[in-house]
Structures are given as structure tokens and as C-alpha cells.
Amino acid sequence: PLLIKTTKADSEADLKDSLEMLELRKKTIEKQEKRITSKLEELQANLQSAMQQMQP
Q1: C-alpha–C-alpha distance, residues 1 and 28, integer Å
Q2: 3 state SS for the chain
């Protein structure tokens, strides 16, 4: 095991910072997911429309 000399307060502050960073990353990924899902639905609708126009 690796032992690092630190205080409880410092460890808690580091963990809090890490948690805040992870929450921010989570929100960013969720926004990206919504944008990608929306774009996928738009492309799917366009593709279906194009395929219907090609059918006699």
C-alpha cells in the first residue's frame, strides 16, 4: 500500500473537488447524449422520408 501523509480535511476537500468534477463531466455527457439522440432521430426521419419518395 502507498501511504500519503495528509489531513482529513485535505482528503475531504480533494474528494469534494473530484466529485464536483465528475458531476460536471456527467452533465456534459448527458447533454451530448441528448444532442446525439436528437440528431439521430432527425437523420432517421430524413432517411425514412427519402425512402418513401423512392417507392413507386
Answers
A1: 34
A2: CCCCCCCHHHHHHHHHHHHHHHHHHHHHHHHHHHHHHHHHHHHHHHHHHHHHHHCC
**Model pTM?**
0.70
Q: Cα–Cα distance between 11 and 17 in angstroms, integer? A: 10
Report which residue type is found at 27: K
| pLDDT higher than threshold 80 for residue 39 | yes
Could you give the CA distance from residue 49 to residue 42 in angstroms, rounded to a whole number?
A: 11
Query: CB-based contacts of 8: which residues, under 8 Å, 6+ apart?
Result: none
